[in-house]
Amino acid sequence: CEDLLASSILRVSIWMMTLTSLIFNCFSIYLYKKSHVVKAHDWMVSVLNLCDIPLGIYLLIIAITDVRLRGVFVGLKTSWTNSIACKLASALSLFSLLSSAYMLCLITFARYSIVQNPLKSIFKSIKTVYKFSFAGFITCILIVTVVSVGYYYYEENNEAPNALCLLLTGTTNSFTLNIVSGLVASIQIWSLVFILSSYYFLIKAIKHSEKSVKSCRKRNKHLTEITSRILLVTMTNILCWFPSSIVYLLSLSHYPVSPKVLSWVTVFVLPINSAINPVISVLTRQNVKKFFSKQL
Predict the structure, then answer these.
(1) CA 45, CA 290: separation in Å to the nearest integer?
(2) Which of 92, 137, 215, 268 has the smallest CB count inside 10 Å?
(3) At what angle do helices 40-68 and 84-116 cross, to 10 degrees?
């Protein structure tokens, strides 16, 4: 492969994914800041947007590098994988993968808790949500720091494991990368199982509440709308996590993943949630819906 991204489809697509991710995530956070009523759910969604932004920055670094080194990448590949930019990109991608999975699980559990215990749920408190979000954020930063220090400094690896700067084991015999590959695959698979299971019981609880409390139909309708929105977001993560977890498991077994496959996974699979989630979040916000209804 003479270039970082060999296909013109990949080159166009990575810019589309990058711009969509960065613009809509930032816009979603802006809408939250502009809202007059601070809700715990909206706060968690804005934190999810914040966790998705690093993956957009990672894609931006890869896209710019592809343009900058096009035609000469083969001769400068070692220089690129040795660069600070590549090492920063690897840290950003890992942080985004871990933190977005955590936030989606937190959002799902919080919604389930509120539906089950609408008066007593601790997740109705914005302070509680602050604490859980902050704890997850700091934990992900610590994991990324330990992994980066362990791989690049403790194991004395000057180069990133691959040209796309993803912390995958591949054919590299690295204890740190083995841990990372296993950790990411496990988190994605168990998050997927947890979220799908939670939504099964959540939908059952909402249906039961609609039947038993007719006077609160407006509240239940609102809960159903929020649940449908989060379920749609979760489906995008199925498309993201399932293929990427397979890649990480193959990497853990030291199966050589070809650069072409890795390129397609990087451009079309990893950014699915960070690109689509904020679009869904923006289009389903009440102030945006009111704006479009007025225009129509």
Answers:
(1) 19
(2) 215
(3) 160
Give the residue, 218 or 194, on which the prediction is more confident. Answer: 194
pLDDT digits (tens, 9 = 90+) for 193-204: 888 888 878 777
Q: What is the DSSP letter of 151?
A: I
Q: Are 69 and 198 in contact (CB under 8 A)?
A: no
Judged by DSSP in three states, 118 sits in coil
Determine the average pLDDT of the residues in 7-15: 90
pLDDT at 78 over 80: yes
Report how far residue 278's alpha carbon sits from residue 129's, in angstroms, rounded to the nearest whole number.
20
For the packed helices 217-252 and 272-283, what is the interaxial angle rounded to 10 degrees? 170
> Measured between alpha carbons, how far is 203 from 32 in angstroms, rounded to an integer?
26
* Three-state secondary-structure class, residue 249: helix
| pLDDT tens digit sequence for 246-296 | 888 887 777 777 777 888 888 888 888 788 878 877 776 655 555 445 544
Q: What phi-psi label fits residue 217: left (phi over 0), alpha (psi between -120 and 50 degrees) or beta?
A: alpha
Report residue 28 as tokens: 């979603």
Residue 114: name the closest of 210, 202, 232, 20 by CA: 202
